[in-house]
Amino acid sequence: METLCPRCGIRMDMIKETEIIANGERIIKYFYKCPACGVKLSHSHLTIKQDGTGVTITVARPVPAH
Question: Per-domain residue ranges for the chain?
Fold first, then answer.
């Protein structure tokens, strides 16, 4: 399924960014970006935390605006 830019109607690209926080926590952000006008639409965020007993992965999806 293609996601089209709400501003200009061009097919948007799926982009992934990873941040590493000082305590070792990782945040992975998925979003769509229009190659023509630069509009970004958030898709989902994953938070990965590791402690002495294991790994916790939290997935957050934005609530669509109506």
Answer: 13-60
Contacts of 36 (CB under 8 A, 6+ apart): 5, 8, 10
> Would residue 55 be called left, alpha or beta, if left means φ above 0 and alpha means ψ between -120 and 50 degrees?
beta
Residuewise pLDDT in 10s, the chain (66 residues): 789 999 999 999 999 999 998 888 999 999 999 999 999 999 999 999 988 889 999 999 876 654
Between CA 55 and CA 66 the distance in angstroms is: 35
pTM equals: 0.77
Contact 55, 48 (CB under 8 A): yes
- Name the nearest CA neighbour of 59 among 35, 29, 38, 36: 29
